[in-house]
Write a structure and sequence with these properties.
43% of the residues lie in helices and 22% in strands. It is an alpha/beta fold.
Length: 157
């Protein structure tokens, strides 16, 4: 099964992008993985938060495929320790399917229609982070989970 991280807007901080790219390359040694960047909306000042979430939802739905297992990265989702996340990932990958799709929403989160489509919601922390930093945290955790599953020495518990 392929894993995909869908994000809205590109990373503007070169240093964060370099670190993210490094982890994407590392993950590719364990599983097919890619990041799909949806262009950010233009002229958002003219849109209410609800209108912005609806427009982002429309763009997101065009990136989804039949049979995707959709996992939203949302502050209200389930939190897991790294070992628990590794076991969770292993179960999802073993369940089969075409793609395991993680999504980082826009600045106001997800439209209700996207929450309704989601199979699960996970939270990386109760704290708030920039969306650019969440990308890096997510790919690091995917890499960490893969090393845990293979008994490699990256993670120390």
């Amino acid at each position: 099964m392929k894993a995909v991280l869908i994000v809205i807007g590109r990373t503007t901080d070169r240093r964060l992008q370099e670190l993210t790219d490094d982890y994407v390359e590392r993950i590719s040694h364990y599983m097919p993985f890619s990041i799909d960047v949806i262009p950010e909306l233009r002229q958002t000042k003219a849109l209410s938060p609800e209108q912005q979430k609806a427009a982002e939802a429309d763009m997101l739905r065009t990136r989804l495929q039949q049979g995707d297992r959709l996992v939203l990265l949302d502050e209200h989702g389930t939190e897991r320790r790294s070992m628990e996340f590794a076991r969770w990932l292993q179960k999802r990958l073993a369940a089969g399917g075409r793609r395991l799709v993680f999504v980082v929403g826009g600045p106001y989160g997800f439209d209700t229609s996207i929450h309704d489509l989601a199979d699960e919601e996970i939270s990386l922390s109760q704290m708030t982070f920039s969306h650019q930093l969440i990308r890096l945290l997510m790919v690091e955790q995917l890499y960490r989970a893969n090393t845990i599953l293979r008994g490699e020495p990256y993670h120390h518990e």
